[in-house]
Design a protein that fits this description.
The protein is built from five helices and no strands. With about 80 residues, the protein is mainly α.
């Protein structure tokens, strides 16, 4: 999914992230990366939900939070 995201195959990347969420529903890394994808897709409401889920689980990377802030979205 990350490779597909980086190569701008957003819809396919989303399907892989969603499949990964079904397999590992409480993995904050998946939520974080899906949130980054949603920012790139300009789906900011969904990105915010994924960020809240990831950070609630104490995910340490702050890039998603920063990207949302830059887009005018408060967590």
């Amino acid at each position: 999914a990350i490779y597909l995201h980086k190569t701008n195959a957003y819809k396919l990347a989303e399907s892989y992230y969603l499949s990964a969420q079904k397999i590992l529903p409480s993995n904050p890394e998946i939520d974080y990366n899906l949130g980054l994808l949603y920012v790139d897709m300009n789906r900011l409401d969904e990105a915010k939900v994924m960020a809240q889920k990831a950070y609630k689980a104490n995910f340490p990377l702050q890039g998603l939070k920063s990207r949302l802030k830059d887009a005018g979205v408060d967590l």
